[in-house]
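Hi there,

I know you've been waiting on this one. I reran it after we fixed the sequence typo, so this is the corrected version. Both the input and the resulting structure follow.
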Amino acid sequence: MEAVSELLLSWLASVLDFILHIDVRLDDLTEKHGWQTYLILFAVVFWETGVVIWPFLPGDSLLFAAGAIAAREASPLSPAVLIPLLITAAFLGDTANYWIGNFFGPRVLNRDGRFLKKKYLDKTRDFYDRHGAKTIVLARFVPVVRTFAPFVAGVGSMRYRRFLGYNVIGGAAWTILFVGAGYLFGTHPFVRKNFTLVILAIIVVSILPMAIEFARAKRKGAPSASAPTPAPSAAAADLPSLPARGTGPEVGDDPPGSPSAD
Protein backbone atom coordinates (compact mmCIF):
# COMPACT_ATOMS: atom_id res chain seq x y z
CA MET A 1 0.00 0.00 0.00
CA GLU A 2 2.85 2.36 0.84
CA ALA A 3 4.46 1.60 -2.51
CA VAL A 4 1.23 2.53 -4.30
CA SER A 5 0.96 5.78 -2.30
CA GLU A 6 4.56 6.68 -3.08
CA LEU A 7 4.01 5.93 -6.76
CA LEU A 8 0.88 8.10 -6.79
CA LEU A 9 2.64 10.97 -5.03
CA SER A 10 5.54 10.71 -7.44
CA TRP A 11 3.15 10.81 -10.39
CA LEU A 12 1.29 13.82 -8.97
CA ALA A 13 4.60 15.62 -8.41
CA SER A 14 5.57 14.91 -12.02
CA VAL A 15 2.23 16.23 -13.29
CA LEU A 16 2.56 19.39 -11.15
CA ASP A 17 6.11 19.97 -12.38
CA PHE A 18 4.95 19.48 -15.98
CA ILE A 19 2.12 22.00 -15.55
CA LEU A 20 4.24 24.66 -13.84
CA HIS A 21 6.99 24.36 -16.46
CA ILE A 22 4.72 23.45 -19.34
CA ASP A 23 6.39 25.81 -21.80
CA VAL A 24 9.79 24.17 -21.19
CA ARG A 25 8.30 20.67 -21.43
CA LEU A 26 6.50 21.49 -24.67
CA ASP A 27 9.67 23.04 -26.05
CA ASP A 28 11.46 19.77 -25.32
CA LEU A 29 8.67 17.79 -26.98
CA THR A 30 8.68 19.90 -30.12
CA GLU A 31 12.48 19.68 -30.40
CA LYS A 32 12.51 15.92 -29.97
CA HIS A 33 9.34 14.96 -31.85
CA GLY A 34 8.61 17.82 -34.26
CA TRP A 35 5.23 17.38 -35.97
CA GLN A 36 4.51 14.32 -33.79
CA THR A 37 3.89 16.80 -30.95
CA TYR A 38 0.46 17.26 -32.55
CA LEU A 39 -0.32 13.62 -31.75
CA ILE A 40 0.85 14.02 -28.15
CA LEU A 41 -1.28 17.14 -27.64
CA PHE A 42 -4.26 15.42 -29.25
CA ALA A 43 -3.86 12.45 -26.89
CA VAL A 44 -3.58 14.60 -23.73
CA VAL A 45 -6.65 16.71 -24.58
CA PHE A 46 -8.66 13.61 -25.50
CA TRP A 47 -7.55 11.81 -22.34
CA GLU A 48 -8.31 14.78 -20.06
CA THR A 49 -11.83 15.22 -21.44
CA GLY A 50 -12.63 11.63 -22.40
CA VAL A 51 -11.42 9.46 -19.52
CA VAL A 52 -13.45 10.18 -16.42
CA ILE A 53 -10.84 8.84 -13.96
CA TRP A 54 -8.20 11.41 -15.02
CA PRO A 55 -9.66 14.87 -14.34
CA PHE A 56 -6.36 16.43 -13.22
CA LEU A 57 -4.42 16.42 -16.47
CA PRO A 58 -3.50 19.89 -17.82
CA GLY A 59 -6.19 21.48 -19.96
CA ASP A 60 -6.39 25.28 -20.06
CA SER A 61 -2.67 25.69 -19.39
CA LEU A 62 -1.75 23.15 -22.06
CA LEU A 63 -3.81 24.93 -24.72
CA PHE A 64 -2.34 28.31 -23.78
CA ALA A 65 1.24 26.97 -23.86
CA ALA A 66 0.66 25.24 -27.20
CA GLY A 67 -0.63 28.49 -28.68
CA ALA A 68 2.38 30.38 -27.29
CA ILE A 69 4.85 27.92 -28.83
CA ALA A 70 2.98 28.01 -32.15
CA ALA A 71 3.58 31.78 -32.26
CA ARG A 72 7.37 31.44 -32.06
CA GLU A 73 9.54 31.66 -35.12
CA ALA A 74 10.46 28.35 -36.74
CA SER A 75 7.98 26.51 -34.49
CA PRO A 76 6.86 23.13 -35.85
CA LEU A 77 3.37 23.93 -34.55
CA SER A 78 0.91 25.96 -36.60
CA PRO A 79 -2.32 27.45 -35.21
CA ALA A 80 -4.04 26.55 -38.49
CA VAL A 81 -3.44 22.88 -37.66
CA LEU A 82 -3.43 23.10 -33.86
CA ILE A 83 -6.85 24.68 -33.35
CA PRO A 84 -8.97 22.31 -35.52
CA LEU A 85 -6.97 19.32 -34.27
CA LEU A 86 -7.55 20.12 -30.60
CA ILE A 87 -11.19 21.04 -31.20
CA THR A 88 -11.56 17.54 -32.64
CA ALA A 89 -9.76 16.00 -29.65
CA ALA A 90 -12.01 17.88 -27.21
CA PHE A 91 -15.13 16.92 -29.15
CA LEU A 92 -14.19 13.22 -29.37
CA GLY A 93 -13.14 13.18 -25.70
CA ASP A 94 -16.50 14.48 -24.49
CA THR A 95 -18.29 12.13 -26.87
CA ALA A 96 -16.40 9.11 -25.53
CA ASN A 97 -17.08 10.24 -21.96
CA TYR A 98 -20.79 10.62 -22.70
CA TRP A 99 -21.08 7.07 -24.03
CA ILE A 100 -19.03 5.66 -21.14
CA GLY A 101 -21.54 7.25 -18.75
CA ASN A 102 -24.43 6.04 -20.88
CA PHE A 103 -23.08 2.49 -20.84
CA PHE A 104 -22.38 2.21 -17.12
CA GLY A 105 -25.68 3.81 -16.16
CA PRO A 106 -26.93 5.71 -13.10
CA ARG A 107 -25.75 3.09 -10.60
CA VAL A 108 -22.25 4.60 -10.66
CA LEU A 109 -23.55 7.82 -9.07
CA ASN A 110 -24.15 5.98 -5.81
CA ARG A 111 -20.72 4.35 -5.62
CA ASP A 112 -17.37 5.74 -4.51
CA GLY A 113 -14.64 3.86 -6.34
CA ARG A 114 -10.88 4.16 -6.13
CA PHE A 115 -10.71 6.52 -9.11
CA LEU A 116 -14.31 7.60 -9.67
CA LYS A 117 -15.14 9.74 -6.64
CA LYS A 118 -18.80 10.35 -5.85
CA LYS A 119 -18.07 13.85 -4.50
CA TYR A 120 -16.88 14.96 -7.95
CA LEU A 121 -20.02 13.56 -9.54
CA ASP A 122 -22.14 15.32 -6.93
CA LYS A 123 -20.46 18.65 -7.69
CA THR A 124 -21.20 18.11 -11.37
CA ARG A 125 -24.83 17.28 -10.61
CA ASP A 126 -25.08 20.56 -8.69
CA PHE A 127 -23.58 22.36 -11.67
CA TYR A 128 -26.24 20.80 -13.90
CA ASP A 129 -28.92 21.82 -11.44
CA ARG A 130 -27.90 25.47 -11.71
CA HIS A 131 -27.09 25.73 -15.39
CA GLY A 132 -29.10 23.02 -17.16
CA ALA A 133 -27.83 21.61 -20.46
CA LYS A 134 -25.58 24.65 -20.91
CA THR A 135 -23.32 22.89 -18.40
CA ILE A 136 -21.70 21.08 -21.34
CA VAL A 137 -20.45 24.45 -22.60
CA LEU A 138 -19.73 26.15 -19.26
CA ALA A 139 -17.97 23.12 -17.78
CA ARG A 140 -15.28 23.36 -20.46
CA PHE A 141 -13.85 26.25 -18.47
CA VAL A 142 -14.00 24.56 -15.04
CA PRO A 143 -11.37 21.90 -14.23
CA VAL A 144 -12.65 18.56 -12.88
CA VAL A 145 -16.25 19.52 -13.77
CA ARG A 146 -15.06 19.58 -17.40
CA THR A 147 -14.20 15.88 -17.16
CA PHE A 148 -17.32 14.76 -15.31
CA ALA A 149 -19.99 16.82 -17.13
CA PRO A 150 -20.25 14.64 -20.27
CA PHE A 151 -20.09 11.50 -18.14
CA VAL A 152 -23.03 12.64 -16.01
CA ALA A 153 -24.92 13.68 -19.15
CA GLY A 154 -24.55 10.13 -20.44
CA VAL A 155 -25.55 8.61 -17.10
CA GLY A 156 -28.69 10.73 -17.04
CA SER A 157 -29.53 9.87 -20.65
CA MET A 158 -29.49 13.38 -22.05
CA ARG A 159 -30.42 12.91 -25.70
CA TYR A 160 -27.21 12.65 -27.70
CA ARG A 161 -28.49 15.01 -30.40
CA ARG A 162 -28.98 17.68 -27.73
CA PHE A 163 -25.61 16.90 -26.16
CA LEU A 164 -23.90 17.07 -29.56
CA GLY A 165 -24.68 20.74 -30.18
CA TYR A 166 -23.41 21.87 -26.78
CA ASN A 167 -20.35 19.65 -27.17
CA VAL A 168 -19.36 21.26 -30.47
CA ILE A 169 -19.90 24.81 -29.18
CA GLY A 170 -18.06 24.19 -25.90
CA GLY A 171 -15.10 22.39 -27.46
CA ALA A 172 -14.64 25.06 -30.13
CA ALA A 173 -14.97 27.99 -27.70
CA TRP A 174 -12.57 26.46 -25.16
CA THR A 175 -9.89 25.61 -27.71
CA ILE A 176 -10.07 28.84 -29.70
CA LEU A 177 -10.02 30.99 -26.55
CA PHE A 178 -6.97 29.43 -24.89
CA VAL A 179 -4.91 28.54 -27.97
CA GLY A 180 -5.73 31.97 -29.42
CA ALA A 181 -4.74 33.73 -26.18
CA GLY A 182 -1.46 31.83 -26.10
CA TYR A 183 -0.77 32.66 -29.74
CA LEU A 184 -1.53 36.37 -29.27
CA PHE A 185 0.14 36.96 -25.90
CA GLY A 186 2.56 34.06 -25.42
CA THR A 187 5.45 35.79 -27.18
CA HIS A 188 5.08 39.03 -25.23
CA PRO A 189 8.31 39.67 -23.27
CA PHE A 190 6.49 39.89 -19.93
CA VAL A 191 4.63 36.62 -20.54
CA ARG A 192 7.76 34.77 -21.69
CA LYS A 193 9.70 36.01 -18.67
CA ASN A 194 6.93 35.10 -16.21
CA PHE A 195 5.37 32.12 -17.95
CA THR A 196 5.05 30.06 -14.77
CA LEU A 197 3.19 32.91 -13.05
CA VAL A 198 0.89 33.25 -16.06
CA ILE A 199 0.13 29.52 -15.95
CA LEU A 200 -0.58 29.76 -12.20
CA ALA A 201 -2.91 32.70 -12.88
CA ILE A 202 -4.77 30.65 -15.50
CA ILE A 203 -5.13 27.77 -13.04
CA VAL A 204 -6.35 30.07 -10.25
CA VAL A 205 -8.89 31.77 -12.51
CA SER A 206 -10.07 28.36 -13.74
CA ILE A 207 -10.66 26.92 -10.28
CA LEU A 208 -12.04 30.14 -8.80
CA PRO A 209 -15.71 29.27 -9.52
CA MET A 210 -15.30 25.93 -7.73
CA ALA A 211 -13.55 27.59 -4.77
CA ILE A 212 -16.36 30.16 -4.46
CA GLU A 213 -19.03 27.46 -4.56
CA PHE A 214 -17.13 25.41 -1.98
CA ALA A 215 -16.86 28.43 0.32
CA ARG A 216 -20.58 29.14 -0.03
CA ALA A 217 -21.44 25.54 0.77
CA LYS A 218 -19.21 25.55 3.85
CA ARG A 219 -20.74 28.84 5.01
CA LYS A 220 -24.26 27.50 4.72
CA GLY A 221 -23.36 24.31 6.59
CA ALA A 222 -25.64 21.36 7.04
CA PRO A 223 -29.39 22.09 7.23
CA SER A 224 -30.97 21.90 10.66
CA ALA A 225 -33.18 18.94 11.55
CA SER A 226 -36.24 21.16 11.81
CA ALA A 227 -35.71 22.80 8.47
CA PRO A 228 -37.64 21.25 5.60
CA THR A 229 -35.46 19.66 2.92
CA PRO A 230 -36.01 21.35 -0.44
CA ALA A 231 -37.16 19.13 -3.27
CA PRO A 232 -34.49 18.54 -5.92
CA SER A 233 -34.95 20.03 -9.36
CA ALA A 234 -35.93 17.85 -12.29
CA ALA A 235 -32.32 17.76 -13.54
CA ALA A 236 -30.84 16.68 -10.22
CA ALA A 237 -33.65 14.30 -9.40
CA ASP A 238 -33.04 12.26 -12.52
CA LEU A 239 -29.34 11.74 -11.92
CA PRO A 240 -29.10 9.42 -8.91
CA SER A 241 -31.67 6.85 -10.00
CA LEU A 242 -33.30 6.33 -13.35
CA PRO A 243 -35.53 3.25 -13.44
CA ALA A 244 -35.61 3.29 -17.21
CA ARG A 245 -33.64 5.25 -19.76
CA GLY A 246 -35.56 7.68 -21.88
CA THR A 247 -38.40 8.17 -19.37
CA GLY A 248 -39.16 11.23 -17.31
CA PRO A 249 -37.52 14.66 -17.64
CA GLU A 250 -34.23 14.72 -19.49
CA VAL A 251 -31.06 15.23 -17.50
CA GLY A 252 -29.57 18.63 -18.08
CA ASP A 253 -32.85 20.23 -19.15
CA ASP A 254 -32.63 23.98 -18.73
CA PRO A 255 -34.53 25.38 -15.75
CA PRO A 256 -38.16 26.21 -16.54
CA GLY A 257 -38.63 29.63 -18.04
CA SER A 258 -35.10 29.88 -19.44
CA PRO A 259 -34.83 30.99 -23.08
CA SER A 260 -33.20 27.74 -24.21
CA ALA A 261 -35.70 25.40 -22.55
CA ASP A 262 -37.45 23.03 -24.94
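Quick highlight: The radius of gyration is 20 Å.

Best,
R. S.
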